[in-house]
Write a structure and sequence with these properties.
Radius of gyration: 23 Å
Order of helices and strands: HHEHHEHHEHHEHHEEEEEEEEE
Number of strands: 13
Structural class: alpha+beta
Number of helices: 10
Length: 335
C-alpha cells in the first residue's frame, strides 16, 4: 500500500494497537525506503546491514525475520506484514513476542515443532548480530558462543530431546527471565542511531572523501589518518549529537588515502542543514587531508555538500584538527 486511506488506518490501528500518528510515521519511513509499497528480501537484508553496520554478520538474522514476516510467502513484505511484526517485537505482550520468535526460529512454521537444529541455526544468527566486528573471531569467542547455545538448549530441555512444541517453548521461556530476554528480541542491539529508537528519525548518508586535489581527486601522499574522527551536524531545528564515524559501508580501513567512506546514521529531524563541525583526535603523526563531505538526508532526499580541501593536522599549516564547515564554502586555513 503506497498510501493509507482512512479505512486502512482504522484497520491497522485495530490490528496493532498503535495510534494513527505512529502508523503514519512508520508508513512514511517504509515508503521512503520502499516506494513500490513492498520490500524484497535483498532490500530487507541491505537495510539490516545499514541498521547494524558494526555487527559481525546481520544477513542470517535478517533472512530469518524476513521469512517469519512474509505471511503470503511472495518473497516481499508489504506494509501490513511489516507493521504487524514490528508491533509485536517492540510491544510488551510476552506471549505474542515468544510466539513470533518461535515462528521466526522455525522458518515461518508456526504449527510444527521446533527442532534442535533449527534453533541452533537461529541462535548462531542472533549471536552474529550481537557480536561486533571489533571482537576477535578466535577460539575463545567460539567457545563463548557455544556456551551460550548450550545454555539455551538446556533451559529449553533440548539437551535431552530433539524438538520442542510452541506451547512448551513459550512456557519455559516465560518462566525464565534471562531466557526470555535472550529469545524475545531483547538481546538484539539497537539500530545505528543515538538513542537506539528509530521512531521519528531521519536516515542520513554521510560520505567522506580522503585525499585528492581538483576534479580528478589525485591521491595526496600521507593524506589518510588512523585517528578517531567525529562529526556534529548543525540544522535549523537543532544540532545532532556527536557522531563518531567508525563503521564505513565501503572500506574496512577508514580514511585511507583515496578512500570514499560511507556511513549511515539515524537522527532526529534537524531541518535545513546550516553547517557541520568535523574533527579528529590524532596527534602530530596523524594528519588528515579531507577533500569533501557530503550529507544526504535520504528520508527527505536532500543533499548538502561541504568542500573541505584542507589538512586537519596538528603539525602543519594552521595546526587545526577541528574545523567548522559551511555548505558550498571551502573553509581554507587560518592566517
Amino acid at each position: 500500500m503506497s498510501s493509507l486511506t482512512a479505512k486502512d488506518l482504522n484497520q491497522l490501528a485495530e490490528e496493532t494497537g498503535l495510534n494513527k500518528s505512529a502508523i503514519q510515521d512508520w508508513h512514511k519511513r517504509f515508503i521512503n525506503e520502499c516506494p513500490t509499497g513492498s520490500i524484497s528480501k535483498e532490500r530487507y537484508i541491505n537495510l539490516y546491514r545499514s541498521y547494524y553496520p558494526r555487527a559481525r554478520n546481520s544477513d542470517s538474522y535478517a533472512q530469518m525475520l524476513f521469512t517469519a514476516f512474509d505471511e503470503d510467502r511472495d518473497q516481499a513484505l508489504n506494509f501490513r506484514e511489516f507493521l504487524r511484526v514490528v508491533t509485536v517485537s517492540q510491544g510488551s505482550d510476552e506471549k505474542a513476542k515468544l510466539e513470533l520468535a518461535f515462528k521466526a526460529y522455525n522458518r515461518n512454521q508456526a504449527d510444527t515443532n521446533l527442532t534442535r537444529k533449527e534453533l541452533q541455526n537461529a541462535l548462531v544468527a542472533i549471536l552474529s548480530l550481537v557480536e561486533t566486528q571489533d571482537e576477535p573471531d578466535d577460539r575463545h569467542e567460539t567457545d563463548k558462543r557455544q556456551q551460550t547455545i548450550d545454555w539455551v538448549m538446556k533451559r529449553l530441555g533440548l539437551d535431552e530431546k530433539n524438538e520442542i512444541t510452541k506451547k512448551e517453548f513459550v512456557r519455559r521461556s516465560k518462566g525464565d527471565p534471562n531466557l526470555y530476554e535472550f529469545l524475545a528480541f531483547h538481546c538484539v542491539p539497537k539500530p545505528n542511531c543515538p538513542d537506539g529508537d528509530l521512531r521519528g528519525k531521519e536516515k542520513y548518508k554521510i560520505v567522506v572523501h580522503t585525499g585528492g586535489e581538483g576534479r580528478k581527486l589525485i591521491p595526496i601522499r600521507g593524506a589518510g589518518t588512523d585517528a578517531n574522527v567525529y562529526l556534529i551536524i548543525h540544522g535549523e531545528r537543532g544540532d545532532s549529537e556527536t557522531i563518531q564515524l567508525q563503521s564505513s559501508q565501503t572500506n574496512k580501513d577508514l580514511f585511507e588515502n583515496g578512500n570514499t567512506d560511507v556511513f549511515i546514521q539515524f537522527l532526529p529531524p534537524l531541518g535545513k542543514i546550516k553547517g557541520a563541525t568535523l574533527w579528529h583526535t590524532g596527534d602530530k603523526s596523524q594528519g588528515w587531508y579531507v577533500d569533501n563531505l557530503l550529507l544526504t538526508n535520504e528520508t527527505l532526499n536532500k543533499t548538502t555538500f561541504f568542500p573541505v580541501q584542507r589538512w586537519l593536522d596538528a603539525d602543519q599549516f594552521d595546526k587545526k584538527t577541528k574545523i567548522e564547515l559551511i555548505p558550498n564554502q571551502t573553509p581554507g586555513y587560518t592566517q
